[in-house]
Design a protein that fits this description.
With 715 residues, the chain is α+β, with helices and mostly antiparallel strands. Helix content is 52%, strand content 15%. The chain contains 26 helices and 20 strands. Strand 6 and strand 7 form a beta hairpin.
Length: 715
Amino acid sequence: MTFGVLLLIFLLGMGLRLHQLDADSLWLDEVHTAITSRLDFVSMLNFLVEEDVHPPLHYLLTHWLIAFLGTSDFLIRLPSALFGSASVVLAYKLGELLWTRKEGLVGAFILAVNTYLVHYSQEARHYALMVFFVLFSLIFLILAVRHGRIGSWLGFAMCTSLAIYTHYFSFLVLPSQVAFAMWMIWKKRPPTVAEEQSPPPHPRRQTLALLASLLLVAASYLPWLPAMRAQLLKPDIGLQGFGSVPESAAHLSLGFFRDLLADYTGWDGVPLLLLLALFMIGLSRCRREHLLLFGLWIVTPFVFLAVVQAKHFFDVRYTIFILPLCLLLVGRGTSASAAWLGRPLGHRTGQRHTSSVLLSSFAILLGLLNVAPLRDYYTHQKEDWRGTARYLAANLVPGDGIIGDSTLYGTGSDADRVTKSLPYYLDAYGVTGNPVFRVRQGLWKQLTEWDHWNGRLWAVLWHPQRDLDEASTAQAVEFPGVSVVRLREPSGDALLDTERLLRLLLGLIPEGSARFDVHLTLANIYIRTGRLEHAKSELQLASELMPDHPTASASLEKELARCGRLSQALDGMRYPLWRNFGNEVALLGYAFAPDTAQPGDTLELTAWWYPMQEMERDYTAFVHVLDLDGSVRAQQDKLLRRGRRTTSHWKPEEVVTVKYEMLLPADAPPGLYTINVGVYYWETAERLSARDESGQRLSGDMVRLHQIEVKHQND
């Protein structure tokens, strides 16, 4: 009977976890799992150390699964669904060990239909796997303490090691496990009948076995310890040890715990109060060793959060291992309530039957209360990156660029929701030649350096909060949580269309971080193209929206300083100018004398050069004096220097003045002459691409600076 009921509960739990397993697109963290797991073994471990903050076990399991069965959203999530389903059986076994089969069955049923656990059993992340190994570890510990078998101690050590190889928060269950084991080993009580027939191992022997198990756990983790240290000391984690909790960490207030319970159960109001009442009844029916276990199990993670200082934000899902024990306590409270109510309702001979009926009724009621949260969970759709990528794959042409918003300062890697999730699905549809750029400083440089760009841009927005009106110059295609925006009639001018699209984004995205980045990006474009008045206006708007985050502040200060230096340099120039050479160096302006000349005169040009970034090569600039036929009548090629420092030693954004002198030949014919300038690498004579302020490439990669008139003395 028990086996049949448990089998039905297990099948129910598995069905809920496999139902619509691949209905939604992978979200950002799941995409990260998929990308990481597809790497080869060594590259994956190196990537985890350098770019991740999690242990490797879940990635390894996913890696081996997709290596044998292939990559799909269903398979990426399958390990979580399977381990989440198996945890239902482990919950039964744990409830049976702590109390009786009734508590095990009720607890397993509540766990099987719990929306929160179903959710994280359908997510390609570590949490279902962590719950499985933590439960298995506790089961082995209880068996080891009771019977002292070596196999149980080894099972405890192995499952504990696997748990902490899955998620670092698994370390937080060890204090409660050790305290519970020591209490059970050394407590004084009369022996039971079974213990009189088969005495338990001596406490000292059990203590040594516990210590040996913990040493095995420590030894198994030694190979990963350097990687763990490197991960947790990264600047974005900022684990600094004990101290005050920073603003970005969890605030352990009553509101926080209310939200925690609402997340864990999916309930609110009267159902939540009912659940809390059953939990408290279950807690009151526990023995002292159980109270010690549950108390430390639940409290330790929050004590840790209260005393350890770190920058990384906290999420409720990191403590998901608390939930199964809480649900088992609810099962214990349900069983105790049914037994208590069964006494007056049933006759002496039918009391057990009455209690069983009541227990079944209570369990069914708890299951029915989960119907609405489960329905809401299954009908809610995540961001549809799969549908967005399918639409783009059908409409993109070679050379189209994609820009994405969603830079959220201070919230980890949320800025990658567009720039990581979308390319993952575009790649699945065979689209590899259309990169996705993030709206941030340097966007214009990235676009102009992309050789295949045809000037046409698409914007992909994560959770836009406004809609385009019918008269808008752009059109949008909506997907759940995502919008694709493009201009109705592109002008063909790459710079103009980029500005138009960025300005449209300001009308679609909400106030805050993303708008700040759009303004900063526009300012960066205007500075790079020499339109400083426009840049100043955008910087003012950005400063009014600046997020309270050091990265945002540093970005704004950088653009303000760049704009100030350029303004100061341009103020004293006779001919202000902005011409870009290969996104390496720009010509800010020039001075030229004389405006009329005679054959044999010396022409003087002063050029103000502006390094846009650190340069690896030493470049040479040429100045050509061309007659009406385009023939070079005079020229000077000069290695760009500031003192003895060539361009490979220039500092970004310093202003360098270089003077040139060209001697007109004595036989120079009269007429209008043109002064052209270009930049090339002296070893190969390869010219840097010359672009005007709109980003258009100039003919011959030369900039036409000035015209002079050459007259003969008798003219």
